[in-house]
Amino acid sequence: MFSPETQQQVDRLLSRYPIRRNALLPLLHLAQKENQGWLDSKWVNHVAELCEVSPTHVEGVATFYTMFRFRPPGKYHLQVCTCVPCCLVGGPEILEHLEHKLGIHAGHTTKDGLFSIEEMECIGACAYAPAMIVNEDYVEQLTPEKIDQLLDTLATTPQEQETHA
Amino acid sequence: MLEETLVLFRNIRTPGYDGTLDSYRKAGGYQSLPKALAMQPEEVIALVKEAGLRGRGGAGFPTGLKWSFMAKNTGKPSYLVCNADESEPGTCKDRELMLKDPHLFLEGMMIGCYALGCHHGYIYVRGEYFPAIKSLNKAIDDCYREGILGPKLLGGDYELDLTVHTGAGAYICGEESALLDSLEGKRGHPRVKPPFPAVAGFNSCPTSVNNVETLTNVTAILEMGADAYKSLGSPNNAGTHLVSLSGHVNRPGVYEVAMGVGLREIIQELGGGVRGGKQLKGVIPGGSSSPVLRADEIDIAYDFDSVGKAGSMMGSSAIMVFDEDTDVVKLLHRISRFYNHESCGQCTPCREGTHWARQLLRDFLQNNGSERKLNRLQRVGRNMGGTTLCALGDAASMPIVSFLKKFPDDFRQYYATAS
Ligand SMILES: Cc1cc2nc3c(=O)[nH]c(=O)nc-3n(C[C@H](O)[C@H](O)[C@H](O)COP(=O)(O)O)c2cc1C
Ligand code: SF4
Ligand code: FES
After folding, report:
1. Which residues of A touch B284 (CB under 8 A)?
2. Does any CB of chain A come closer than 8 Å to the CB of residue B87?
3. Which of B281, B301, B323 is the last residue of a domain?
4. Which residues of A touch B288 (CB under 8 A)?
5. Ligand 2, residues B388, B394, B397, B398: which to mutate, most atoms within 8 A of Cβ?
6. Of the four, A17, A67, B187, B335, which is 20 to 30 A from B166 by CA?
7. Interface test with A, best of B128, B213, B251 (most A CBs within 10 A)
8. Cβ burial B9-22 (10 Å sphere, 16+ → b, else e)
C-alpha cells in the first residue's frame, strides 16, 4: 500500500526497534501522510499487519493521540494554539479571526477542501506567541494582518507549496 | 545589568553558526565524547554526579544519581530514552537546542549512552515538532555518514545507534512511564511504580529517561569539568539553564542564565519588563502547573531550591508573565481546560476533578459564580493533589489552589456583581 519510496522508510523504521509493535506511532504517521492526512480502516489494518498486532489495538492507540485524524483535513491544516501563553497575547482572537475569514469553526474544513482549522494545546512556541502550525511548518508572532496575507498566499499557491510565512 | 551566561547557547548566539556537523566541529564539537570514551563508564557517571547536574525536565532530580540506579547485569539490553516531548505550557527550550544546535545535544546523548552501557538510544520527540524532527534526523544521518555513530562510535570499539521516535499529540506522554508505553506502541498511560524504569522501562528493560537540556549539559560537563560547571550556578543548583520567557513582556524569548539569578531581573532586564508600560500582576514561574506568584513575591533567586522555598517550583524553567489587566479567572480557566483535556482518565480524582474544575470556572466566567462554588472549586483542587497515579493530578491541583489563595478578590468579583 505504501509507495516504493515510503516502503523503504517503513522497512528502515521497523529495523530500528527490538519489537515490531514499537514502530506503531511512526508507521501511523507515515500512513497518514501517504493517505492525504488521515487514516481509514484500510490503513489501520495495514499498519496492524506490519506491526503484528490486531487492528483493534491499532485503533485503540490511534484514537488516543490527537494527531491522528479519521476524516480528511483541508489541503492546508491550520493548527492554532490558544493555550496559556498564547492566550495571554491574543491566540484566541487569532483563532476567531481565522474562523471568521474562512467561515468555519475549529474542527471543520472549508467547502472547497482548501482549509481546515484545529484548536491546539501548547505547541511549544510560547516565546514566539501567538503561534500556529500550517501542515508541518510553524508560523509565529501572528497578527490578523499576517493571517490575511498568509491565507491570500496559500489560496493562490498552485499544487505543491511551501507554507513559510 | 543581567546578562546571559552562554554555555548551551554559546554556538547558537555566535553569528554565522548554522548547527551543521561542519560548523559544530569548527566550534570545537565532538571533543567531549572522546574524553568520555577514554574514561570508564562509572567514572563518567561519577563526574556527572560531582558536577551536581539536576534534571531539566521538571523535577530537578540529580542525573548522576538517576544513572547510578540503572539495574546491571540483567542479561537484557539497557536503554537511554531522551524525553523531547516538551508539552508543559510555557516551555519551548528543548526545541531551540534540537533545531539550532542538534549535535551539541546528540553528543551529550552519546556520552549518556556510553555511561549507561546502552547500544541504542531513542529520542522521543513530540509529533508536532516537525522542524526539530527533521533537524535531528539530518544530524543523525550526518553522524552515521561520518562514522561518528554506528558499529564504531567515533572510530572506537563501542557500538551505538540513535533513533528519533515521533510522538503524536498527548501531553501525558511527557510523564516518563507513559512515554515508555507510548514508545512501545501503546496508549500513553502512566504506569504504577515500582518498578521504576531503571529496573523495568522500555520493553521491560533497564531504562533511563532524561530531558534534552539535561543531556546537552552532559556535553558541557565533559568539556569544562565538574568544578567549573558547578561554579556557574548557586549551591546545590549547578550550571546554567534555559528559561522560556513568555506572556506580557517586551522581549519574550528563550534565554540562558546561570542558576540562581534574580527572577525579577530576568523579567525586567532580559525580558525588558512588562509591555505597554503596565504594572505586573503576577508570574507563573515554572510551567503552567507551578503555583502562581504575585508581583510582590518575585524578589527571589531563580533556581530549584529558592523557587521551592517561595512556595512554588521552577519546573521546566518556563516563566509566564501577566499584567494588571489580566483576568486571572479566565487565565485559570484556560489552565484547567488544558489539564482536563490532557488527563488520561485512569484515576478518578484526576479525571473527575479536572472536569469539575473546568465547569466551575466556566460558571464563574458566565457570571454564575457563588461563595459555594468557590469553596467547591477549592475542595476539587485540593483533592486532586497527591492522590493520583502520576503527577498530572498535582499539576492540575497546584494552579487552582494557588490562584484562589493569591487572588481571592478576583474570583469574588464574578459573583459580587451577579447576585
Ligand atoms: C504530566 C507530566 C508531564 C511531563 N512532561 C515532560 C516533558 O514534556 N518533558 C520532560 O522532559 N519531562 C516531562 N516530565 C517529567 C518526566 O516524567 C521525567 O521526570 C523527566 O523526563 C526526567 O528527565 P530529567 O531527569 O532529565 O529531568 C513530565 C512529567 C509529568 C508528570
Ligand atoms: S493522574 Fe491523571 S493523567 Fe496521571 S495517570 Fe491518573 S488520570 Fe492519568
Ligand atoms: S501556549 Fe501557544 S505555543 Fe505554547
Report:
1. 84
2. yes
3. B323
4. 83-84, 122
5. B388
6. B335
7. B128
8. bbbbeeeebebebe
C-alpha distance from A47 to closest chain B C-alpha (Å): 12
Residue at which a domain ends, from B201, B230, B259: B230
DSSP calls for B225-281: -HHHHHTTSBTTB-SEEEEEEEESBSS-EEEEEETT-BHHHIIIIIS-SBGGGPPEE
Give the distance (Å) from ligand 2 centre to CA of residue A132. Answer: 27
Domain assignment of residue B164, yes or no: yes
Q: Does B312 share its domain with B344? A: no
Report the alpha-carbon distance of residue A28 to residue A17 in Å, rounded. 15
pTM: 0.97
Q: What span, in angstroms and rounded, lies between the C-alpha atoms of B415 and B419?
A: 6
Task: Give the E-state strand segments of B111-236 in sequence order.
Answer: 120-125, 161-166, 207-211
CATH number at residue B391: 1.20.1440.230
Distance B362 CA to ligand 2 centre (A): 22
Q: Compare CB distances from B185 to A21, A66, A124 and report the shortest one's residue.
A: A21
How many angstroms separate the alpha carbon of residue B139 from the centre of ligand 1? 24
The crossing angle, in degrees rounded to 10, of helices B328-342 and B408-416 is 100
Angstrom distance (rounded) from CA B232 to CA B221 = 11
User: Quick one: three-class SS letters along A9-20?
Assistant: HHHHHHCCCCCH
Contact between chains at B161 and A16 (C-beta distance less than 8 A): yes
Give pLDDT tens digits along chain B (419 positions): 899 999 999 999 999 999 999 999 999 999 999 999 999 999 999 999 999 999 999 999 999 999 999 999 999 999 999 999 999 999 999 999 999 999 999 999 999 999 999 999 999 999 999 999 999 999 999 999 999 999 999 999 999 999 999 999 999 999 999 999 999 999 999 999 999 999 999 999 999 999 999 999 999 999 999 999 999 999 999 999 999 999 999 999 999 999 999 999 999 999 999 999 999 999 999 999 999 999 999 999 999 999 999 999 999 999 999 999 999 999 999 999 999 999 999 999 999 999 999 999 999 999 899 999 999 999 999 999 888 999 999 999 999 999 999 999 999 988 876 44
Distance B169 CA to ligand 1 centre (A): 15
The best mutation among B97, B105, B176 to test binding of ligand 1, ranked by most ligand atoms within 8 Å of the C-beta, falls on B176
Chain-chain contact of A29 with B168 (C-beta, under 8 angstroms): yes
B247, B140 Cβ separation under 8 angstroms: no
Is residue B16 situated within a structural domain? Answer: no
Q: How many CB pairs under 8 A join A and B?
A: 139
* B152: containing domain: 21-230
Whether residues B313 and B214 share a domain: the answer is no
| Grid cell 498530572 in the structure block, residue | B392
